[in-house]
Amino acid sequence: MLLIDKIAYENRLIELSPGLKSILYLVLLMICFLTPPVIQGSISLIIGITTIYVTRVKVRRYFKWLLVPAPFLVISILTILFSISPRSGGFIFELSLFNHFLGITRASLTTGTRLFFRSFSCLICTYFFILTVPFNQILLVMKRAHFPTLLIELTMLMYRFIFIFADEFLIIKRAQDMRFGYRGIKNSYQSLGALTKILFFQTFDRFNKMILSLEMKFFDGDFPL
Predict the structure, then answer these.
(1) Residue 127 belongs to what domain range?
(2) Which of 140, 170, 185 is the last residue of a domain?
(3) What is the pLDDT of residues 124-145, one digit of tens each?
(4) Which residues, listed in sequence order, are joined to residue 84 by a DSSP beta bridge?
(5) Spatial distance between the Cα atoms of 14 and 29, rounded to a whole number of angstroms
(6) How many CA within 13 A on the CB side of residue 57?
(7) Where are the transmembrane segments (predicted)?
(8) Of 16, 26, 56, 217, which alpha carbon lies 20 to 30 A from 80's?
(9) Total structural domains in the chain?
(10) Alpha-carbon distance 127 to 186, whole Å?
């Protein structure tokens, strides 16, 4: 079981209706999309503290999880903040670059700030949802909301393959570490290439075994949900 699943099954709100938590999550997302940065920041602080208390997650670990999508958020914001112009002027900060000017305008700064607070607040709310609602309850909510059966089954299979992928990765990585496969740059590149190759074939092998086991149980194409 992944750590996120373990936390979701042991959080303080496990007895609360998953449908109610899903509605709360959607309402929070709407608020984060429609409100100004001040309210978005307040929601991030309140929901973040609530998540830490409800899930009993250490503050340090929680902030580490928040850093996972940070590179994507930073890149998105930088592409909005900076603009290039052949003329100087209109920038609150500028750099000369190959007869052009790279800088930040007031409009791009405002847009970037709004994007940051909106994305960050939505991320905080999403963490609250996934850390308080176990996956089987998410499938139940999707079924009650009349999502297409095919979509629910695909979601379940994708989630299952996360476990398969993570399990195979840890086994191969542990074996390489025991053989000092990541000592030195050259060995690290070789081990990383071997890890990628073996992981690809092992994942497909596990997939074929799963299909074989389903056929032995007279699988007719529909998963009982």
Answers:
(1) 3-140
(2) 140
(3) 999 999 899 988 888 888 888 8
(4) 102
(5) 21
(6) 27
(7) 23-53, 65-84, 90-109, 116-135, 147-170
(8) 26
(9) 2
(10) 38
